[in-house]
Design a protein that fits this description.
Length: 346
């Protein structure tokens, strides 16, 4: 009997130990919060050591960014206006990354991964002249599209970029909740390699393909405005680039199963023509200030369930341990009494 009781005690202690270890392993499996695998835009960077002579000599005076969001993808056009402040012609190579991971400035401990399986159909131009790519992502250059640009002395030059991105593979992570939503992120130029400041930036995002403002969660580095007639989100920045700014982040439609993005890329010419029409139209229209939901917020029961488990860990486990100890003491006491009775009978 005594050996049987000892086995019961050992089994219960082992059960509690396994339960505690399993719970802690399970709870430690929380993913880094943020927006992952978003489609979006990187920022221009000087890539080659021999071009360091141009450091802080060329000013990005302004940027005008046009985005058309569709379910599953986005079309982007950027007009970047540069000024060479020197008396010499400067020829340098600039790169555009295909992925990046960056922290937010307003939401601490949150990361964003801007991942483009590619910047599809990317092209750069000055006026109507296409500028050929100097380099593309490959085994020796796994992250960059590169152009070689020539900046005339004391003159402005506008470089235009068009591309498509897949926004359908993203997810918003918070604790144990994963929401699979389309997401687009535009990285605001820091001006860290260009002569500061960037005097002004205008950012226009048109919702296309039946996307409603009701489906939009967004964060921008300045106040967001909206025109309901044209379905355009707008924000403006002035004299920035001295320090890192928050980036423009939009989450919108649900993930599309079996999305055929390759078919979208075949229509790139028409999509680029459409965004050209959009960028050349009169966008000085009435906008009203709008407050949108936080794009980092998620829906789901996972965090509530985990909260309950934490409550059980904090309050329930001591009760369980106490109960087990009480049972052990009762068993020991009963064994002790039985031994005494046996001795008396002898």
């Amino acid at each position: 009997m005594f050996l049987e009781n000892n086995n019961i005690i050992r089994n219960r202690i082992l059960y509690v130990g396994i339960l505690l270890i399993s719970l802690f392993l399970f709870l430690s499996n929380s993913a880094q919060p943020g927006i992952w695998n978003a489609g979006g835009s990187g920022s221009f960077t000087l890539l080659y050591p021999e071009d360091s002579i141009a450091y802080k000599k060329i000013q990005m005076k302004s940027e005008n960014i046009y985005i058309q969001l569709y379910k599953g993808y986005a079309v982007v056009k950027g007009n970047y206006n540069f000024f060479n402040s020197t008396k010499d012609t400067i020829k340098i190579k600039v790169g555009y990354p295909i992925n990046n991971v960056f922290p937010t400035t307003n939401y601490k401990s949150i990361l964003n991964q801007v991942f483009f399986d590619n910047l599809y159909k990317i092209k750069g131009s000055i006026g109507n002249t296409i500028i050929p790519l100097f380099n593309v992502p490959n085994k020796n250059n796994d992250n960059w599209y590169v152009w070689e640009l020539e900046f005339p002395p004391r003159k402005e030059l506008t470089f235009t970029v068009h591309f498509l991105v897949n926004t359908n593979n993203s997810k918003v992570v918070k604790g144990y909740n994963n929401n699979y939503r389309n997401a687009f992120i535009y990285l605001i130029e820091t001006g860290s390699l260009w002569k500061s400041p960037i005097e002004n930036g205008n950012f226009y995002t048109q919702l296309k393909g039946g996307i409603s403002i009701k489906n939009i969660k967004a964060h921008a580095p300045s106040n967001l405005f909206f025109n309901p007639n044209k379905n355009i989100l707008f924000f403006k920045m002035e004299n920035y680039g001295f320090t890192p700014n928050d980036n423009f982040i939009v989450t919108y439609a649900k993930k599309i199963p079996d999305f055929n993005f390759a078919a979208i890329t075949k229509n790139s010419s028409n999509l680029f023509n459409e965004i050209d029409d959009f960028s050349n139209s009169n966008l000085d229209i009435g906008y009203r200030k709008i407050l949108l939901e936080n794009p980092y917020q998620t829906k789901g029961m996972s965090n509530s369930v985990i909260g309950l488990i934490y409550f059980v860990l904090i309050f329930g486990i001591p009760i369980i341990i106490g109960t087990v100890l009480l049972i052990i003491l009762i068993i020991i006491y009963k064994n002790f009494k039985k031994k005494k009775l046996i001795k008396k009978e002898k």
